[in-house]
Design a protein that fits this description.
The protein starts with 6 loop residues before the first strand and ends in a 13-residue tail after the last strand. 7% of the residues are buried. With 71 residues, the protein is α+β, with helices and mostly antiparallel strands. It has one helix and three strands; from the N terminus they run βαββ.
Length: 71
């Protein structure tokens, strides 16, 4: 599965949330859900060129995986 299939509802933002209240509000606006472990799937990161910020719902498991371990 390509990474594009796991990302939905992308949008550019001026700033990322700075606290839990702002994060919860942004996640609700985008309609982000939780993964199977209850982790919110909202992310806000710089784009690949680091010229803007992108917020989106990540449609896969959140968290870290061991190197070489892919589900």
């Amino acid at each position: 599965v390509g990474s594009e299939m796991c990302i939905r509802d992308r949008s550019l933002v001026d700033v990322c949330p700075t606290n839990l209240e702002e994060l919860t509000k942004a996640a609700k606006i985008l309609g982000c859900g939780n993964d199977t472990y209850g982790n919110n799937q909202y992310l806000c990161l710089p784009n690949v060129d680091r010229t803007s910020l992108v917020e989106f719902c990540y449609g896969n498991l959140m968290g870290m995986f061991e190197k070489g371990f892919v589900t």
